[in-house]
Amino acid sequence: MTGRTADPVLVEIVEGTLASVEKEVETAIARTARSPMIRDAHDFRAGIHDVRMRKLTGRSYSALVQPVVRDFPIETMRPGDVFFHNDVYLSEGGIGHLPDLCVTVPVFHGGEVVAFVQAFGHHDDIGGAVPGSMPSHARSAYEEGLMVPPIKLWDQGVPNRAALTIMTRNSRMPDSLAGDLDAECSACLMGARRLGELFDRYGREAVEACFDAIIDKTTETFRRELLSKIPEGVYVWEDYAEHDGVDEPRLHAQRITLTVDHSADPPLTIDFTGTSPQAKGPINHAGDYADGVFLKKWLAPILRNLADTPERMAELDVNEGVVPLTKMVFPEKGTLLTPIFPAPTNARTFVILRLLGVLAGVLAKATGGRMPADQETIRYTGVYGESDDGPYLMREVLGGGSGGRWYADGEDTIHVVPDSRNIPVEFAEARWPLRVERLGLAVDSGGPGEFRGGLGYDKHIRMLRDASFMSIADRSILSCWGVNGGRAGRPFQVTVDGVEMEGLVDDYPVRAGQVIRIRTTGGGGWGSPYDRPAEKVAADVRDGKVTFEGAREDYGVVLTGTRDDVVIDVEATERLRERLRETRPAAFFDRGPGFPKLSGGLTYAEVDTV
Amino acid sequence: MRIGVDTGGTFTDVVLVDEESGRIVTTKTPSTPDNPADGFMAGVHKALEAHAGSHALDAVSALVHGTTVATNQLLEDRQDGTSHLGFITTEGFEFVLEIARQSVPDGYGNSYFWVKPPRIVPVHRVRTVGGRLDHLGREVRPFDEEQAVAAARWFRERGITAIGVCFLHSYANPGHERRMREVLEREHPEAVVSLSSDVLREYREYERSVTTLVDAAVKPTMRRYIENLSERLGRPFSVMKSNGGVLSAAEVVHQPITTVLSGPAAGALGAALIASTAGRPSVITLDGGGTSTDVAVVVDGEPSLTTEGSIGRYPCKIPMIDIVTVGAGGGSIAWISPEGTLKVGPRSAGADPGPICYGKGGAEVTVTDAHVFLGRVPPHLLGGEIALDVAAARAGVEELAGRLGLTPERCATGILEISAFNQSNAIRRITVQRGLDVRDFPLVAFGGSGPLLACRLIDILGLRAAIVPPDPGNVSAFGLLTVDVKNDYVRTYVARDPSPAVVGEILGELEAQAAAALDREGFAEHVYARSADLRYYGQAYEVRVPAPDGPVDEAWLAAVAERFHAEHERLYGYGYRDDPRHAVEWVNLRVSGIGPITRPKIARRPRQEDEPSPVATRDVFFERWARTVIYRRADLGAGAVVRGPAVIEEYGSTLPVHPGFTATMDDYGNLVVVSDDR
User: Fold this and answer.
1) Where do the domains of chain B lie, and which CATH numbers do they carry?
2) ipTM of the modeled complex
3) What are B476-511's pLDDT values in tens digits?
4) What is the 3-state secondary structure (H, E, C) of A298-336?
5) In chain B, what residues touch A421 (CB-CB under 8 Å)?
6) Omega before B346 cis (within 30°)?
7) Which of A92, A265, B14, B622 could form an SS bridge with A66, CB 3.0 to 4.6 Å?
8) Which of B91, B113, B203 is best to mutate for the A interface (most A CBs within 10 A)?
């Protein structure tokens, strides 16, 4: 707490203004950007930070201002300056891979910097070994594209043409790169003007008092409503990435030891010791900078699942106020989370997305299962080649099913990134030489449970010309885990004309007329599938989400008739379920049939029991 | 004589204009949700009675109706809202509604706890039919008649009678959808059918599907309602559309989706005409009601349109007046968040139980209670018809203030300040996000609660002026009498190197469609307004620009492209006019067919000869408690000047004039409020 007291009315006004400025900046970027990753997948974020580099807005994660201030002291900044960086190892942990280009604009009031507006977005291509700058077999950051440490992209309103020319020259898609940068810079400058007006109106002292209040409020709310739900103790869990693009598939562990002590300051300690050595391939995440401040804000949204209702979870903001609640302990240099430059990082989503699940799992152990089962909702699939318009890259982020929850089934085909959108078929077919023959749900892919996991996609793409297929996906061997008796969902699977692909593919030839079939992951199930009401299983069969066989084998529900007229055989169901219940699951988590293939035959990990 | 009838949730407002005498009669009756036609007829009779002393409709030249009958069915999530609805789509795409755009709203990490709301049609009422077109409308696989028949019979057997049809790429070629309709007519003649190629001939299959299904969902209700009303009236009438035009009731039943947001659209149009008459063609309109506030922008007399609206949670991509709605109205409830800060809305006490001061069991402090406590509104409603319980409002505010550790006055002014900020953020969203500077636009504030915060909005947004029209509660009904007949037609044509011949041909076809509809409506004079949606190649969103009349040639194409560059620059701060690396891509061509009507004349107000004299004084809190003068609006004439602090009251609405502000009545009876500092 600080000495300044904030007027509760002004706090509400300042908070509303920050949210609306952030939204305006993001809307402006979404509407004018070119890269499909930004435009459709919404893989970009705006953030507003105060002059102490604390994140003020609560809807999303964002990069950090720390690396800019490190290299350009605040007192040297001038109105009209725009800073730029994408260099992972010089980003203080705020940037995970090179295609995320970050723009930072200082906000001035009375001649002094009072805040920052920042945006980063995932651009099409920033050079490197393969189109799209995500070489899945990279062994070094030098293969991943152009690294730009913090630079002044605009100097007092004057764009640095040399820097822009160098960047666009290094990209396979220079026009879209230039367009995306214009979109980001214009939007941040607009946001900075709006924020400047707020300071002009109420004065620096009053506004900064509100910033303190907004941040303190989050700290207190998390402590009161969320942390209080976790019993004190020490809890350990780990999960795995299955391949790194270089070595044969194996278990790349990410481990969290969570210590909860409500009277300690901070009350939570997250210790990553036990995390596997850094990978040769690009799945590393440079997280051990600035006391892990990026990861603290990245992981905190998982805590929201501890709130009393889903409605309340949605109301809780994540801003710098979560940082004082957590201490992070990193293992020595040279692990997946503490890689040594120039270890490659372009597929670090494998690690940072998995960390969300590791925290969810460790909290599930701590709370007797009152957390959602696993989801995996980011992977990149695409095709590239030549069309009448020249070379093209069609790369999309297809979501997956979310995990079952103690109050609801998981949802089908959703994405962890807010507002991330799939590409309309009618747009895709007009733009690229392909035809989508089916866009459906992958039947039986949802993890069986009292609350079933959501389903993944089942997408069939027929190429109309020869092309190359690419994919960057984890969870093609291991599954999204089920919890509390719930079973794992089905993993990611791609076939090209019936030939099964691995998860990491840079360049697989597809002939005109051949069909690429993509099935994305189903979410894990929550609770025993034998406790799911038979009527709900019958409805899933009617809807094409579960097959008759799946109903019998996964849920112990015996159905007859047709999908239009499903009939429950009540007696047979009772008999079957009675028998199936005798075979209790051995562990608290179910990782699916892929786990023994990588674990040397173990059906569950040592940390999987409670 | 022309009559406008606006059926709202609580009241049915009626405005009658006698074109010969210029006389305007306004009245209100309670709405009758069980059968809205009852309230409609009662209101019309009441207005006629007041004007001519008889119920005869003979002298009425036009009757225009704004209604939310269709919308409420969807907005209220009623069980009967969509249970009669089925969907037919392309084989392989039965999950298009479940998948939607895969997006989870709002915050990062919400995917863990978000619960997807029910789809407009659950997947077990979706059937698919084989047959496939490509993006140019060429047939890849023929239409599967057998599956079509099976689907039609499946719906018939289950008594599903409203059916939406959306096949892939039907915007480019409606052939397969039309064959599906023929099959349905033959196999399932009771069904009402909506084809996506009729409703919205624009690409993006999910949005087109939902838009088509909204049309199909409201069709049976609208048909029943319109038939019932036509019978009781015994004469034709028109219905207001969301795009700011009207259409005869007989035509509306074929495209009911075009009427779904007609109420707010009428308000924006009415305010636009009132402001234009007073010499202000470009304004922001703010319609403040009990539960929410609707904001729109009018540029050069025309409210701006959008095709990215939604009805409740259903995206509807038909052209509609661009209105931003915020949950900030007189009934919005003030509450303390678990974090201990003061919040206002979006929950509303509505009309029942209503604010504490209504004395109908409301126990939570509302925006109205704050106004009442501060003395800014009179202790009664509707000119004294309903008394308000000031003591109860005060007790409520004091209790809330105690919990916040504030004085009651600071608490009440804080509630109003937050409410004003919620409204001003809505105004910003509709101006700043569209590249407009809010300070260039005076605000027209109307509706029951619209004028109450006018002075605060001037201050917060730096506005030049706020205009409060006479009878602020009846602006929407008045707006119904100001609109032309208007139909919109669109065709997707994606091209970076468009052929003038093809563009000309498409526009010609659209104009022929527009002409046929205007002929059916009996218009001799036709106006066609062309527009086009363009983007830079690679962008996912288009920018709409007006397109010139006349033959389409290279110069015509260049003129439209030039407008696009300029508009992009205005909206987003940059463009690529002379940069060949950034190609311009054409996406949609549009034509609006307009049948113009004669707009009502707004009468001039007699001049004020003497100083206006207040009718009373009352203790009012602005910056402190002070005995404050109260004026009756009916006593004021053109040129009358009221300096704050003061309160101007009229039937159904109140304007508090804060210290440092001045209200002047203009020649048309509008009160123009300005800050003395500007």
Assistant:
1) 76-225 (no CATH), 332-419 (no CATH), 484-595 (3.30.1490)
2) 0.94
3) 888 998 888 888 898 989 899 999 999 999 999 999
4) HHHHHHHHHCCCHHHHHHCCCCHHHHHHEEEECCCCCEC
5) 101-103
6) yes
7) A92
8) B113
